[in-house]
Write a structure and sequence with these properties.
The chain is of the alpha+beta class. The protein is built from six helices and three strands, in the order αβββααααα. Strands 1-2-3 form a three-stranded antiparallel beta sheet, covered by helices on one side. Strand 1 and strand 2 form a beta hairpin. The longest helix is centred in the middle third of the chain and has 33 residues. The two termini are 22 Å apart.
Length: 149
Amino acid sequence: MGLRESLLEERDKLNFLIEKALKDLEVAPEGNVIISFGHGQDYFYLSDTQKHEIVYLKKKKEKALIKALCKKRYAMNVLKAAYEQREIIDRFLCRYDFKAVPEAIKAPRLKEYCKPYLELDDKDSDEEFSIVDYELVAQLRDLCSKILG
């Protein structure tokens, strides 16, 4: 798998995460959760920006609301990261010319006067070419997948 295919595969994973996060946000309750840690436990507060209020949430009574607000916060964090990474991939794919290096290496007129840095087959000119360490790309992709879920 080439660099382009790896990036497109990663973009598909990001699109999946974005869709999942957007679905969760559609049913999320109003407000945001504030989590405070003290005396060895978490305390939860509902922050309503429209009313400018912060209300303490009791763990036992408001367990469902706490879970829903935490899920909303999680979805918002994932959505932000996924959008940013997808934009980076899109910009790279838009600007990177996968044929520029093979064409420069082949340099038909200069080839007879100097030795090329790499010998490319005819198939290399038709397919994607990259001097990327694909093992490293695979490790980074796996790491990103673990981080993103």
